[in-house]
């Protein structure tokens, strides 16, 4: 019995099979290459992040070393040196040494339009928390938000003193501040969203002085708006000016009542002493 005849594949079919096999191998090769490329790209990105982080840290340490050298050279007291060290540590932890701070110092080279949009995104929420601005037009707030400047105060710092000429108002972004009277007593505490100094910059009834001392309890982050910037913005927005004037007068009245309440016990005591002397 002879061997069965083997069916020879047609040329077209064989070519199709070889093409399919080759295509499968190419697909695997391409997928493998793509995976490697993606992995390499991810690792490059991770490497860039680490490199940038290290560069920022090196710059931070360079600044800190310079500050330490300066303080040692000028024989700055140890307590002050520790305060400076803590400020640097705090600034690093809050990202202030990595492009933080106000919009001007961090992104000063950006075009004005882009800078404005970015400032609105970052700072508008803080401005909207301030009761004196809640009823103002969005356009007015947009004008102000780019002019806000950021400050950090360390524990125990006096932000302002009673009787000083008010050149700016402050908005608390983070931290706790104390309002202190002439006897050093704490009248009240202020927190994020609170503000002060608006009475002086609005020059209500010719009153342009600070009404109390304000001291930072811990580390505090504040935004300031200068008198010139606020008054300039109000010229373009009369409705906002009316709102600020009304709320400012209300706060001024409260401050005067508070001062009167503080002085009342002293006046009573002085009157009693005068009466006693007359009786004698």
From TrEMBL:
One Gene Ontology cellular component: membrane
Record InterPro entries: CNG_cation_channel, cNMP-bd_CS, cNMP-bd_dom, cNMP-bd_dom_sf, RmlC-like_jellyroll
SMART domains linked: cNMP
Keyword presence, Membrane: yes
Keywords: Ion channel, Ion transport, Ligand-gated ion channel, Membrane, Transmembrane, Transmembrane helix, Transport
Domain Cyclic nucleotide-binding: 132-228
Organism field: Trichonephila inaurata madagascariensis
Compositional bias segments (type: Basic and acidic residues): 269-280
Subcellular location: Membrane
Membrane topology field: Multi-pass membrane protein
Matches recorded under Pfam families: cNMP_binding (PF00027)
Protein name as annotated: Cyclic nucleotide-gated channel cone photoreceptor subunit alpha
UniProt GO molecular function: intracellularly cyclic nucleotide-activated monoatomic cation channel activity; protein-containing complex binding
UniProt keyword annotation of Transmembrane helix present: yes
Region (Disordered): 260-280
Family annotation (PROSITE patterns): CNMP_BINDING_1, CNMP_BINDING_2, CNMP_BINDING_3
């Amino acid at each position: 019995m002879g061997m069965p005849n083997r069916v020879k594949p047609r040329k077209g079919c064989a070519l199709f099979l070889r093409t399919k096999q080759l295509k499968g191998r190419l697909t695997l090769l391409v997928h493998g290459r793509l995976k490697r490329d993606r992995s390499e790209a991810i690792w490059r990105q991770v490497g860039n992040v680490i490199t940038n982080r290290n560069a920022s840290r090196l710059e931070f340490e360079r600044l800190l070393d310079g500050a330490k050298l300066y303080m040692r050279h000028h024989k700055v007291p140890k307590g002050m040196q520790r305060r400076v060290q803590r400020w640097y540590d705090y600034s690093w932890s809050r990202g202030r040494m990595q492009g933080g701070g106000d919009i001007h110092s961090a992104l000063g080279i950006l075009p004005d339009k882009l800078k404005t949009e970015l400032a609105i995104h970052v700072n508008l929420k803080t401005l909207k928390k301030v009761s004196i601005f809640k009823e103002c037009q969005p356009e007015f707030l947009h004008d102000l938000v780019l002019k806000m400047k950021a400050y950090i105060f360390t524990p125990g710092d006096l932000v302002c003193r009673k009787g000083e000429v008010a050149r700016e108002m402050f908005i608390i972004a983070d931290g706790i501040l104390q309002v202190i009277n002439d006897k050093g007593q704490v009248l009240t505490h202020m927190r994020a969203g609170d503000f002060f100094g608006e009475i002086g910059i609005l020059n209500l009834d010719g009153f342009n002085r600070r009404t109390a001392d304000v001291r930072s309890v811990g580390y505090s982050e504040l935004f300031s708006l200068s008198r010139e910037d606020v008054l300039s913005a109000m010229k373009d927005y009369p409705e906002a000016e009316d709102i600020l004037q009304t709320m400012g007068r209300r706060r001024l009245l409260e401050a005067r009542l508070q001062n009167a309440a503080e002085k009342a016990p002293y006046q009573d005591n002085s009157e009693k002493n005068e009466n006693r002397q007359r009786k004698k």
